[in-house]
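Bench notes, afternoon.
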Amino acid sequence: MTNPYANSVADMPPISPDTAWATVTRMLPELDKCVHRGAMRKSTGKWSQDYSIYTGLCGIALMHLRLGLHCRDVRDDATGATSFFNKAYEMAKLCLEADPRSRDVSFFCGTPGYQAIACVSAKLLGNVAAASSQRRALLGWVRAACEYSEDELLFGRAGYLYALLWVRLHDEADVADFNAALRETAECLVAIGRQLAKSRYTGWPLMWHCFEEPYMGAAHGVVGILGMLLHCYSLLSSESQQLVRGTVDRLLAERSKSGNLPIILGEGSDEHVHWCHGAPGLPLLLASAADALGDEAGTLREAAVQAAEVVWERGVILKGNGLCHGIAGNGYTFLSLYRFTHDVAHLRRAAAFVELLQHGPLQEAIAQQPDPQRRVPGVPDSPCSLMEGCAGVVCFLLDVCSPHVARFPGWEI
């Protein structure tokens, strides 16, 4: 859909914290139903025992943790903050009890995600013993992660790196233990990427597969994996650092003329503009690359700005309002770019994406959009979830009001 604010963004007022909070509080009762039932409502009206952060209960736990931080840091509401931190902790414990040893090893779709939420929420509550116990459990997943079959952010090793990095950010104890786990997992990712590139992808220093294909984007592919490796850059060997640096350069060369990325390497399509596929993941990746590698010539910044232009022009998509492939996820592009460039024009664009969440014609078009991948047309399969539904929209609304500390859940550190 054409961006209805393409020519009027200069007049877009900032979103006030009170306005955002009022919208958030209207959304919470529907999310509370999931909490009370210990299950996720699906688009079909049925309830599912889904515990993942991606589409399940632990994603709502992460939303509560973010609500607590907002109450503490923005609203100066210590009582509210403690209440939300408690909800996050109790829900994470519920998920751990129900799914103590998941198949996947990532933050989004595995037990490490539950442990990360439990650790950080316990830390915020001052429960040192519980935080320490969950930290040790999380660090114990290194071998499983290195032996796992998937590399990408959503299910695999890169997602385990995110869990470690996020907990390390919030819990500065035992940094040496975190660094050892990060280094081992990151070097494993580099070794696998090097082997595959050498055997099948001439000109690529590193390459990885998802579903036996060379995916490019943040959720499943090179963008997401490189993003985590760049956060671990100082822990890598000099040889691995050179391979990561070279892969960033090679990825940039794969962009279309518009600045977008294909879903899979070699595809000619320049169609998809979702966080999971395409340009929306690039500004954060390139900001991380600039931090790790430097950007004296400004080429990384220029590429990030170009990617954001793709999102501004073609990111008003009809897949929904969520984070993974929706309006809120694409809106985060401009919050990432604002922190990279400090240009307030990107905040106005982020505010425009907030307005799109209430834009009548767009919301009607979303509701009528046929999508063979969905059980019910126009409705996400998990409409209350973090990555497909309203829990992720809550996080976006809170972050637009606090752009200096805004972070895309499960992706930005």
